[in-house]
Amino acid sequence: MSPSGNGSRRRRIRRPSRSERREDVPAAAPDRVSYREVFRGELGRLAVGLLLLEFVSAVQVFVTSTILPLVSRELNGGRFYGIALSAGTVALFVSTPASAPLSRRFGPRVVLAGAACLHVAGTVISLLAPSMLVFAAGRLVTGLGSGAMFAIGYATVAEQFPARLRPRMIALLTSMWLLPSLIGPSGAALVATLVGWRWALFGTVPPVLLAVALVIGRIRRAPGPPERSSPTTWIGTAVMTCGAVAISVGGSSSGAVAVVLVCLGAVLALGGAVWVMPDGTLTGSTPTGAAVGGLLLGIFAFFGGDSLITLLVTEGLGRSIAWAAAALSVGGISWSVATLLQPRMLERLDNRGFPIVAAGAGLVAAGLALLLLVLGLGNGPYAPMLVMLAWTVGGAGMGLVYPTLSVSVLLAEGVQPSDAAAALVLAEALGGTLSIAIGGSLVSLSSTITGSFTTGLWLAYSLYTVTAAAVIYYGARAPARLVQP
User: Fold this and answer.
1) Residues of the domain holding 246
2) Final residue of a domain: which of 240, 258, 276?
3) Radius of gyration of the chain (CA)
4) Which runs of consecutive H residues, i.e. helices, occur in 222-353?
5) Which residues lie closer than 8 Å to 391 by C-beta, 6 or more apart?
6) What is the pLDDT of residues 398-422, one digit of tens each?
7) Residue 287 belongs to domain with CATH number
8) Looking at the structure, do residues 133 and 264 belong to the same domain, yes or no?
9) Is the pLDDT of residue 459 over 80?
10) For 133-161, how does the pLDDT look when each residue is reduced to its tens digit (9 = 90+)?
11) Closest Cα to residue 64, out of 189, 236, 246, 208?
């Protein structure tokens, strides 16, 4: 070929100049979303209300768990400790599925107002309680309100925020748990020591009312036509709630009784979930079901491992509880950092969620596997640092899995936002309840049979590691692309 021909071809295929490439960039700029855009205009005020609601809900969770030993001591309620601890979670299994049909019948404003009343009434009952059973009854009422508030909050994100803003809104909601996890226990302990646990509990009431006032005035959706709920939904809710009660009681027991109750509860809870949650949740056979199922398994793996870290450090390694607290703190921090970075990763991957879910699930599994390695190596000089490294990795992985699958659920086609939000909250509650109860039962049974916690820790962390890896399977079947219209 002639030199002129080569020159002509080179001119035809030459790469654009740097200035020409810069001219092409603005075309993609509108697709990029910053966190500042979430807080603009009327939606910004709604976002502030939702974030405050999430924040104060997190504060109350940590305050309650911190003051519960003081409550038990003052009210002489040691034998009802497990009931008081689990009452709020059990209530979620009742109120969360009910929030969707009630919202469509009466409107989300009415349901949110009623949920806030239940939340505050339950808190007041608990802080005025003369006995541990009354305190537990208050926690039950509070849980009924909390479940509906969580569901309405996520449904509001799905209904009123544009799809391109939802990843960042979910990331911000998740990050609202970081500060309470760091200062909530110490702050609650300080207030309870200085003025009493009742004042520590009362301090959560005014912020809840303020947050609800900010949100309720900006929900635009009007009530829809009356809707008759499916009988199978209510039957499934009842079965699932019975399972949650059995799991909670079993998790508070020991030995063979605990194992039987937890196994029975798991069967009932999962069986009821089949009727309440989207089709394919357990098998991953539908995109929406796979997203919910993956979220449930991710919560199961991470929070199960999280709940046993203190026992691993103190009993398995013989180190002080300060190392366990440090590991739990870095796990929460890495979760929040990864969550805030996840929306930008999603944009770079052209809204494809599976790579992020696969990477996150792999990191959670790697962190849990590293904890197994620490158990195998024993109490070496670097064991506490390895535990901190493991939970930094695990927290970062969960910070990728949780928001990605949550947005997948809220963007599901053909699913009412209120139903999607309820499924999301139920997946969290069921995954967390099952993981903590099963892990606790394995450790308790190990102590009863062998006189040591080590075997139980091995079994529990092995189960959590396999479960975390299984999230990849569900992530591959979740919605392939998180479209941002």
Assistant:
1) 230-276
2) 276
3) 24
4) 231-251, 255-276, 287-307, 309-311, 321-348
5) 305, 306, 309, 327, 328, 330, 331, 334, 367, 371
6) 999 999 999 888 877 667 777 888 8
7) 1.20.1250.20
8) no
9) yes
10) 899 899 889 988 988 888 888 888 888 88
11) 189
Q: Is the overall model pTM greater than 0.90, yes or no? A: no
Q: What amino acid is encoded at 485 in this protein?
A: P
Considering the domain architecture, whether residues 155 and 256 belong to the same structural domain is answered as no
Look at residues 309, 329, 327 and name the one whose alpha carbon lies nearest to residue 185.
329
Q: Which two tokens stand for residue 20?
A: 């020409």
Mean pLDDT of the chain: 81
d(CA 49, CA 345): 27
What's the rounded mean pLDDT across residues 200-222?
Answer: 81
Query: Over the range 144-163, which residues count as b (16 or more CB within 10 Å of their CB) and which as e?
Result: bbbbbbbbbbbbbbbbbbee
The residue type at 395: G
Cα angle 155, 244, 295 (rounded to 5 degrees) comes to 45
Question: Distance (Å, rounded) from C-alpha 300 to C-alpha 317?
Answer: 24
Query: Is 444 within a domain?
Result: yes
Q: Mean pLDDT over residues 462-469, rounded?
A: 96
Sign of the C-alpha dihedral computed for residues 427, 432, 434 and 435 taken in this order? positive
